[in-house]
Amino acid sequence: MSDLPSPGQEPPRRFVVQTARTASDMAHCAKCGARAQSVCSAIEDHDLDRLGSSAIQMNVPPGCSFIEDGSDAIDFFNVTEGTVKLYKLLPDGRRQIMGFAGPGHFLGLAVSDQYAFGAEAVDQVRLCRFSRPRLHRLLDDFPRLERRLLKEASNELVAAQNQMLLLGRKTARERVASFLLERWNRCPQTDVLSLPMTRTDIADYLGLTIETVSRTLSTLRREKLIADAGGHNLRILDGERLAELAEGEAS
Amino acid sequence: MSDLPSPGQEPPRRFVVQTARTASDMAHCAKCGARAQSVCSAIEDHDLDRLGSSAIQMNVPPGCSFIEDGSDAIDFFNVTEGTVKLYKLLPDGRRQIMGFAGPGHFLGLAVSDQYAFGAEAVDQVRLCRFSRPRLHRLLDDFPRLERRLLKEASNELVAAQNQMLLLGRKTARERVASFLLERWNRCPQTDVLSLPMTRTDIADYLGLTIETVSRTLSTLRREKLIADAGGHNLRILDGERLAELAEGEAS
DNA sequence: CGCTGTCTTGAGAGTCCTCAACCGTGGTGG
DNA sequence: CCACCACGGTTGAGGACTCTCAAGACAGCG
C-alpha cells in the first residue's frame, strides 16, 4: 500500500494532524472496497488512473484528529476503512458529534474556506485525501462526479434533519433506540451491530451524558430488547419494539 | 404577476396543498428581487427566459402548508418572498422545525422520492415551483446551476450542523441568544430584527417549549440585552454580550 | 499485581417541562 | 357599542427527566 503517518501503537492523541507522502500505487482505486458506496462510483473504470493519481492514501490511528475545527480547508477526504467522528466544540469544551462517517463517506461537503467541524478517527482509519484544486479539476472533468456529490450532500442533509429531530424532540430512551437502529442498518443481514465508539462519543452524538447512555442501555438490556454480543458489539433481540421506541410510539 | 391559490383572508389551515396555474409572465425572473441570493444567479441574463418558462410562480398565504412530510417529491421550490418553515413530526405530534427559509432559499435538496419534511408558510409567501424533470433538464443544460446547488447544499449542511450543536449542547438561554443573532444577521445594517414566526414556531425550532422561550426572552428584556420594537420586531441593545451568551462564554 | 481508562450504578440537584391562570388584541355578532 | 370568544403571549407553581457528583466494577496492560 503506501504511507503510514504513524504506527498503530502510537498513543492516541487529539489534534495531531497527520501528514502523508504521495501514494505510488495508482491501481488502489480498482481494488478499493469502499468504491461502490462512495462518490468514486461516478468514475468509470477506464478513468480510475486519473482518480487514483489525484488522491493520496492515509492511515490514521484511533483517537487521532486529522481535521481541526476552524483550520483552513485545504483537503477533502474519502473514508475507505474504519469510522470517523465529526464534531463541533463550544469554547468551554462541550462537544456535539455531528455524525460517524464509515467507508464510502465523503468529508468536506459542509465547508467554505475553513472547516466547520473537527474530525477524529474512532478506530484504525484509512482515507483518500484530495487537495482542493485537484478535486475541482476532477469535478470539471467528470460532471457525473459533481452530480454524485450533490446526491451525497442531499443524503447528509436528510441525516442531519433526522438528527435535529432526535436532538430537539426525542427523550433519552428514544435517542438511544434510534441510535441503535441506525447502527444496525449499517450491519446488513445480522442481528448484531458494532459500536466502535466509546460511551462518551455516543453521548456527545445523542446530546446526552455518558451516565444517561449507560443507564438507558442497561434498561434496554434488562427489558430484553438488546443483549451483549462480546467486545463492542450488541445483539438486537426485538427490533420491532426498538423501532417503535425510536419513533416515540411506545414507552 | 400570476395565480393566487387562495385569497389572503382565507382561514390559515395546515396541510392544505396549494396548486397553481401556469405563469404567463416569462420576464418575472429578470425582476425577481431574490435572484441575486438564490441559485438562479447561476443563470446568465440571456438564459433567463429559459429559466422563467421552467418555473411556475405561486402565492401561499400564512399558515398554509405546501409540502407534506412523506408525500411524493414532484416539485422543487425557490422562495422569492416571505418566510417558510421546514419541519418534521413524530407520530404523537411533537414537532421539530429544521429551519426558516427566506427569499433565495431553495427547497427540496434533502429529497429522494418522498419529501423528508413538511413546509408551511409563516407569512405571505411567494414561491417559484420547478417540476422534477424540468429541474433536471435545467441542470443538464446549465452545469453552473448544478455547482451552485452543491454550494447551497453545503451551506445548508453547515447551518444544520450549527443547529445540531445548539440542540444537543446549548442551554435554553444560549439557544435563544443564538436564534436572535441568527435572525439579526438577516437584517443588515440595523439593530432591529424581525420575528415573523410565533413563539410556538421558535420553540419547535430551538427544541424548547413556548413557556421557556417566553420566559427567556423576558429575562433578556429585563437584563436590557434586547427591547421590544413594535409588532413582531425586537431591538438588539447589546449584541456583543448576546454573542458571548450564544457561544456559552457568559452566564 | 497494581495501574489506568472505560463503563456502571447510585443519590441528590437543577434545568426545563407540565399544568394552569391571566393578559392583551382582534374579529364577531348581538 | 360592547360583550364575547379565539388566539398568542406571559407568568407562576410544582414536577420530571436528565445532569452532576461520587463511588465502585471491570478489563487491558505494563
Protein architecture, described:
- The structure is a homodimer of 251-residue chains.
- Chain A has 251 residues and is of the alpha+beta class.
- Chain A is built from 8 helices and 11 strands.
- At the A-B interface, strand 5 and helix 4 of A face strand 5 and helix 4 of B.
- Chain A binds a DNA duplex (30 and 30 nucleotides) through residues 171-172, 198-200, 208-212, 214-215, 217-218.
Q: Oligomer, anyone? A: homodimer
Report the span from N to C terminus of chain A. 50 Å
User: Rough shape of chain A?
Assistant: globular
Largest interface: A-B, 41 and 41 residues
Task: Please compute the radius of gyration of chain A using only Cα atoms.
Answer: 19 Å
Major sheet of chain A, described briefly? 4 strands, antiparallel
Q: Give the SSE string of chain A.
A: HHEEEEEEEEHHHEHHEEH
Number of helices of chain A: 8
Provide the residue-averaged pLDDT of chain A.
Answer: 88
Put the structure in a nutshell:
Chain A is an alpha+beta fold and 251 residues long. Chain A has helices at residues 28-31, 48-54, 132-141, 143-169, 172-184, 199-206, 210-222, 239-246, and strands spanning 55-60, 65-67, 75-81, 84-89, 95-101, 106-107, 118-121, 125-131, 192-194, 226-228, 233-236. The first copy, chain A, has 8 helices and 11 strands.
Relevant terms:
251 residues, homodimer, 8 helices, four-stranded antiparallel β-sheet, globular, 11 strands, disordered N terminus, 21% strand, alpha+beta, DNA-binding
Topology:
The structure is a homodimer of 251-residue chains.
Chain A: H1 28-31, H2 48-54, E1 55-60, E2 65-67, E3 75-81, E4 84-89, E5 95-101, E6 106-107, E7 118-121, E8 125-131, H3 132-141, H4 143-169, H5 172-184, E9 192-194, H6 199-206, H7 210-222, E10 226-228, E11 233-236, H8 239-246
Antiparallel strand pairs in A: 1-8, 2-7, 3-6, 3-8, 4-5, 4-7, 9-11, 10-11
Helix pairs in contact in A: 3-4, 5-8, 6-7
The first copy, chain A, binds a DNA duplex (30 and 30 nucleotides) through helix 7.
